[in-house]
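Slide 14.
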Amino acid sequence: MSTPAQITYSDDQAEAYDAVADLLGRAGVDITSGDTMPLQEDRDQVMAIVGKAGSGKTLLLSELVNAVTASGVDLVSGDYEGKARKDRRTLAVLAPTNKAASVLRNRGVPATTIHRILYTPLYDPDYELIADWLAGQGDKPEVEGLADAALDRAKAFYDAHKSIPGALAAAGLRGSDFIQGWKRREDPLDIGFVDESSMLDEKQFEDLREIFPTLVLFGDPAQLAPVGSNGDMVFDTLKDGRRLELSRVHRQDADNPILDLAHALADPSVDFGQFENLVREASLKDDRVVYAERVEADLMARSPVLVWRNATRIRLIQAWRGAYGATVDTLLPGEPLICDGIELPIKHRKKRIDLEARGLVKGAQVVYMGPGKKPGFSRLHVMGAEDPQVSAASIIKIEAPDEEEPFIPFAARMGAAFLHGAAVTIHKAQGSQWDTVQVFAPDLYAAARSGRSEAGQPVWKRLAYVAITRAENRLLWITRNRLSRPTAALDTSDLSTVAPAPLTLEAEPEPEA
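Slide 15: predicted structure.
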């Protein structure tokens, strides 16, 4: 096995690496010698690498991506694919949601969403020349109205970030300048690596198998199954030898108390009360775990409280807004939002393209920066986006307890819709990570009292596992239904210091003729 000298694999990682290498070899990509053969489209092979948090899945995925691309295989994404060639081999790294894909990108793995692979952009012919040049598949073009300096900015951006839309934005172009529309993919691709595959439903799995002759799934069997499923993951159906498990927990080598707690949930003898005692004991030994009697309001603007019940989510949001003095008809700069979709008809597809190209896709985490220049417009910061500052027509919904319909303090007639993001359900948080996470334990106690199970595991344990493993460095286990007073007013200075000038996206409907 040819691997970088600085990487030391455990036995189970080495076994998984070799198994994937064999799979790729049968597909005509030898990551040991670096040789590739033309794609055999009649081949159909699937493998899964599964393991709990900290078992090294992301490291293995990253190293396999490096080995495959070093063999001359091209990375493709939802941004741009380039021209098909008989001798060209490709790899796509995918995740079910934009949040999960951004977690990988933040770790240096160039990932995109499944949706962006199922639906591909149609480029304007002039700008297709620029995309080919950026991707190393053509000469530097001459485009009317676009100076060499703008092209050079685009090239510098692409070399750093490998994003075609981001590079064209750096040249001063909007998404609708170079993307004419979208189409459902008809032609197959080549090799697909899918992270967070526990979130896949059967339909997504079938779609991926139609597109990728070679598919490798990476997932956590202890996470929550997709809503509406029977509790099984898609990789549970794979036969022996096609499902490899990473059992060693590498991050525990660094004495990580958060992962210790997550893996303690696997002990069937541990009930909810015993688990809370484990959390309390961990908090006495390590300040990375906090056993708290109240939610810390100061943290909720950047990392939401994780809850089980939707009613809890709404009550916490209302209490948090009240603590900062926000009223039902106002929105304060610094309030967190979550994109709930784009409400635009087909005839406004160019405006939709602009919004999506800037990261305003369903599930995107956003911070409200203030009102826009037009009624109903908002200045927003899209968390994790390469070019985060945007002004867009917005429909902002504030939900209230015991009310079927949310209150809308202000809204454009059409545009990007948002829910408040100070608290989210654990299901919605799956695939995301934050530096510090607050878990609302009273909800998990309610789940434990319900006696519900999923795939032979108490639901509260699956919920607790997912919630705990969203924390990268610090976990707050909240035991009481209380909220602390904020220590300072909401602030956006941490977001605006290095932000580029915002691009206004005109998402209002055009007047009728």
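Speaker note: Residues 1-5, 497-513 have pLDDT under 50 and may be disordered.
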